[in-house]
Amino acid sequence: MKLNEIRDNEGARKSRKRVARGIGSGSGKTGGRGQKGQKSRSGVAVNGFEGGQMPIYRRLPKRGFKNPFAKTFAVVNLDTIQKAVDAGKLNAASIDVNALMESGIVSKKLDGVRLLARGAITSNVNITVNSASKAAVAAVEKAGGKVSIEA
């Protein structure tokens, strides 16, 4: 066997169907679109149209409210910070958003970083974040640290 003799197995590659290429092809004339009407024309998409019946997106009740000013925070928990400090990835003296990103704890900053109180913290840490829960602030201060919030 030579390189120029290598072929795909029979039927491994299926050639695409060429529609509307003459009556003899078997899919010519109307090209599988049926007869006349809106859907036989080009550039027509009638998604969501239910033949005059009230569409489902109008029959179902609308609920809720999407706040356009809502902020999405990257979340960091106390136990994650404690593990990173123990592993030497973070300097307990000053932890800020950039330090968290460099250590790989936060991958995307989003609208900021929010500190939450899952787990326990034993190290004396100084943390600067964009937002923090009351419980997290209390836990850090109990351990002798400090949480400062920047806008």
Summarize the structure.
By secondary structure, the protein is of the alpha/beta class. The protein has four helices and five strands.
Instruction: Tell me what portion of residues adopts beta-strand conformation.
Output: 5-15%
User: What's the overall average pLDDT, rounded?
Assistant: 92
> Which CATH class of the domain at 74-149?
Alpha Beta
Give, in order, the helices and strands. Answer: HEHHEEEHE
Helix content: 10-25%
Distance between the termini: 70 Å
- By secondary-structure content and strand pairing, the structural class works out as alpha/beta
CATH topology heading of the domain at 74-149: Ribosomal Protein L15, Chain: K, domain 2
Low-pLDDT ranges? none
Give the beta-strand count.
5
Rg (C-alpha, Å)? 31 Å
Count helical runs.
Answer: 4
Strand order of the largest sheet: 1-2-4
So what's the overall shape?
A: elongated
Largest sheet: 3 strands, parallel
Mind telling me which CATH architecture of the domain at 74-149 this is? Answer: Ribosomal Protein L15, Chain: K, domain 2
Key phrases:
single chain, 151 residues, alpha/beta, Ribosomal Protein L15, Chain: K, domain 2, three-stranded parallel sheet, two-stranded parallel sheet, 5 strands
